[in-house]
Amino acid sequence: MNRSAASLLLCLALATIGSLLVPRPAAAQGLFDLFNLGPNPRDEAKYRTEYVEGDRDATDEVLLIRINGTITMGDDDDPTPFEFKRSLMDRLDKDLEAALKLDRVKAVLLEVNSPGGEVTASDIIHHKLSKLKARKKPIVTLIGQLGASGGYYVACAGDKIFAHPTSVLGSIGVIMQTANIEKLADMIGFRHIALKSERTPKKDVLSPFREMTEEEHRMLMSIIDGMHDRFIAIVAAARGKSPQEITKLADGSLYTAEQALANGLIDGIGYREDALAKAAELAGLKTAKLVRRKAKKGLAELLGDLVEMHSGAPAFLAWLEAQMAAHQVPAIKYQFSIGK
Questions:
Q1: Known catalytic residue at 207
Q2: Which N-terminal stretch is annotated as signal sequence (predicted)?
Q3: What is the reported pLDDT for 58?
Q4: pTM (2 decimals)?
Q5: What are the residue ranges of helices labelled H in the chain?
Q6: Which residue range(s) make up the domain with 206?
Q7: CA atoms lying within 13 Å on the CB side of residue 81
Q8: Domain-located, residue 340
Q9: pLDDT tens digit string along 173-184?
Q10: What pLDDT, in 10s, does the model give residues 182-199?
Q11: Which of 149, 241, 289, 333 is catalytic?
């Protein structure tokens, strides 16, 4: 049986099961609601929230948004009808939409646990979060185990930044990596052939099969330094410091929570309840409850959950794909790196 036929049969089987689970008069609409396959007349369902902690009886809410793992743009093009994983950007857009649409959400608690990632992805997330400030909805960032490089860049979208007592953060800087295996290729008799126009001598600037020229090195360093300057400007604006003050800290160093506090990179050390209290204070609230967006899962997400319940293969394949992609295309990153 080919892949398309198998996918069709799976869809039909799920549709049949869904129709049996939904009361007969509402079967058609219920199935569409269950899998989020069509227009939903109850728009408020898109913005449902569920209690996390805090004052359960409070009417005002602080929305929890999480940025976890390596920061990437993700892939908007689904390679199959069953793209199980939602991208970081997709989840963030929906969280921010809820924060903007719901009047009862007065502030955002942004939890960051990330080594950073792509330069542009980090900058876009920072930009998206900053839009909340125009709506007078304050953001308090709480850094988890790691808030390094692009993770700290994103954290700077907060009006206030907290860190756990055991957090590690900083690594303000930019990195681009490649390798030169020219001698190894010669040793094993491998010959690489690159065809390029004489008018584009820099086309293979990061080729691992030849030395980089001084001119190419200067060209790449000008790009990296420009990205670094932007990082410094973002941090300086967020922390109310001069670029010169931040430059002294922006050598890629990592800091403990105590060191970061002493250097003015964060505003406090504490836990979620402390960050929540600060968010409520900035929003002018006496009390509030912390909530998360209650996602309405589509068919692809339900299938993904079902597969992951029975197998670790999807996670392994996703990791393997990420590793391969990371080494295929050289990239400029705001990312903390250990021996890569």
A1: no
A2: 1-28
A3: 94
A4: 0.75
A5: 3-21, 27-35, 88-101, 119-134, 150-155, 182-188, 214-239, 243-247, 257-262, 272-282, 299-310, 313-328
A6: 42-335
A7: 10
A8: no
A9: 999 988 999 999
A10: 999 999 999 889 899 999
A11: 149
